[in-house]
Structure formats: structure tokens, C-alpha cells
Amino acid sequence: MFAWAALIAVLVPLALWGAYEGVLYVTTSGNYVSISNAVVSGDLVPVGSVNAGRVSDVRVAPGTAVRQGEVLASIEIPAAVRTTSNGTPVLGFLGSKDQEIDIVAPIDGLVATLTIANGSAVTAGQTIARIVDPSRLWVTAYVEEADVTRIHVGQSVEVRLAALDRTVPGDVAAVVPGTAGVFSLPATAAATPSKGGDALTNGRLYPIYIHVDLAENPQILGSSAAVRIRVK
């Protein structure tokens, strides 16, 4: 009798603990929506040349921090060097500073892309660089239709940044009122559902924007992220 009493004294607390753990797991899981198909996004401001010409001097490289009005590159504009017998001007480059124009940064930021090199030709209106404002980076995540109604502006978010190997806090800034089918998705987005289950085939994905402070790490623009949104 004593042996049975001792056994019950051990098993009952264990059973109660197991029941508690089961309830805790379900409750905790129901409190969050986890999304693995997220990406660090930002506004890329294109910079172009008003005139056609030849690049004479490139002063920046991808990753360079620039200030508004800072010269990114100089373009030499062709000038008439002679005329044909019928009076048509023949254009050429004189190598004169008087024929150069400067392309300047329209905002403070970081050079994200640069598509020119010294000596390359540019056309009028051609984009030669893109600048990102590091103070305006966010995380874009794609959530399943079944979960989108649980997500609201202001909810707290844990953002795992693969490039930095760390987790940072954030909050839901916007839920886009339209399916991601009309947006450009990352290659992994359509194959990675928000619950981490089987890949979606015909399911709809909704973009959500997450505010997070990444001003000190603008170089991670375009890198992957995973998020966990507290919905309760």
C-alpha cells in the first residue's frame, strides 16, 4: 500500500505538469504568427543624367555614404567639332571641363547601386545610380490569407536578421489591403507559408510592413529576415 501511495505521489504531479505544459504550448503558439519569408526593404531613389554624354569621373562606389548635393559623377557633354559639307554638325568630346556637368545626390543616403564607370556612355534620362535612405528601411513580410486577419497595425514583432545574426524589436506599420499576387515577390515568398508548413501552390499572400530601426545597418538592404508577430 505504501509503495502504491508513493508511486501516485510521483505520477500525479508529473501528469499535472504535462497537462500544464500542453496548455502552455497551445496558448503560446496561438499568441504568435511566425513568418520566414521576409526581406529588408527600402526606398531606392534613382539618380540619372539629364544629358547624353560620356562619364569622365566617378567619385563614389556602392556602399558610399553621401550627402544631398554631393557630386556622384561628372559627365562630359559632346560638342560640335566640325560640320559636314551640308552643314550638319559632327559631335565629339573635347576633354574640356567646360563641357562637363556634375550629377549630384538628391538626398542624404547610401549608394545602393552604381551602373557606370569612367569612359562609359550614358543617354539622356539614364539611371546611373540608386540611393537608399538608411533611416527609411523596413521589413516586408508575406502572410497567408488565413493569418492576415489576426495581424493589425501596432502589434509587436521580433525580427530575426540573417545578415546580422541577431534579433531586433519592431512593430507592424501597415497591412497591405490586397494580395501579393499583384506585387513582385522574393523568390522564396511563394514557396514559404507563414506557418512554416507545406509550400503554397494557389494560396494568397498578403504583404505586411514592419517598422524596425536599421539606420546603423543600411548595408543589409535586400537581405532575408524572419519575423514573429504577437497577435494576442
Structural class: mainly beta
Low-confidence stretches: 2-28, 181-193, 196-201
CATH class of the largest domain: Mainly Beta
Along the chain, the helix and strand elements come as HEEEEEEEEEEHEEEE
Count of all domains:
2
Report the end-to-end length measured between terminal Cα atoms: 48 Å
Number of helices: 2
CATH superfamily of the largest domain: Efflux pump adaptor protein, beta barrel domain
**Any idea what the radius of gyration is?**
28 Å
Biggest sheet: strands, sense, closure?
6 strands, antiparallel, barrel
Share in helix = 10-25%
User: Going across the major beta sheet, what is the strand order?
Assistant: 1-10-13-12-11-14
CATH architecture of the largest domain: Beta Barrel
Which strand-content bin applies to the residues? 35-45%
Average predicted confidence as pLDDT: 78
CATH topology of the largest domain: Elongation Factor Tu (Ef-tu), domain 3
Backbone shape: elongated
Count of DSSP strands: 14
